[in-house]
Amino acid sequence: MNIHALTAASVAVLMLAACGDNRTDDVVQSPAPGAQPVPVTETRADAATADAALAFGMSRSQLEDADLLSADNTDLGDVETLVLDASGKLTHVVVELEGPDDVKVQVPVDQVRGLARNNAADKDLTTDLTAQQLAALPRWTPPAQ
């Protein structure tokens, strides 16, 4: 057997092993009290976030990459993670707040709405919450790696 074929087969096996069950930490299920959040599979993440993303007028990818802006267009932070409840409904977006400490907070989805800027080229989220109100929200603890 050709050494190149063996090398290619070995690389393919290693890549498949690295993929595992294809879980993502960009979308997680909220934990039971006192427990760590649980990453969900890409398939479940796609299904669960499709409706929510559309409700904000954007794709899942755009939602995961969105900035959070204040009513006066001040950049408050960046969306980092989407949090689902046990039924798969999007309940919170985790936002890394602007500032020196990289604080991540859980923002309820009913506190944000979609915002298209630059002739809809940029899609972000906006909120009526102030920076101080956001900083007072529950902190986010990411899933254990």
Blueprint of the fold:
Blueprint: H1 3-19, E1 23-29, E2 38-41, H2 42-55, H3 60-64, E3 67-69, E4 75-84, E5 90-97, E6 104-108, E7 113-117, E8 122-126, H4 131-135
Parallel strand pairs: 1-4, 3-8
Antiparallel strand pairs: 1-2, 3-4, 4-5, 5-6, 7-8
Structural overview:
- By secondary structure, the chain is α+β, with helices and mostly antiparallel strands.
- The protein has helices at 3-19, 42-55, 60-64, 131-135, and strands at 23-29, 38-41, 67-69, 75-84, 90-97, 104-108, 113-117, 122-126.
- Strands 1, 2, 3, 4, 5, 6, 7 and 8 form an 8-stranded mixed beta sheet that branches.
- A hairpin with a 5-residue loop joins strand 4 (75-84) and strand 5 (90-97).
Order of helices and strands: HEEHHEEEEEEH
Which class of secondary structure composition applies to the elements? alpha+beta
Strand content: 25-35%
Q: What about the largest sheet?
A: 8 strands, mixed
Number of discrete helical segments: 4
Q: Helix fraction?
A: 25-40%
Distance between the termini: 39 Å
What is the approximate shape?
globular
Strands, count = 8
Q: What is the gyration radius calculated from CA atoms?
A: 18 Å
| Residue runs with pLDDT of under 50 for 5 or more positions | 1-24
Average pLDDT number? 76
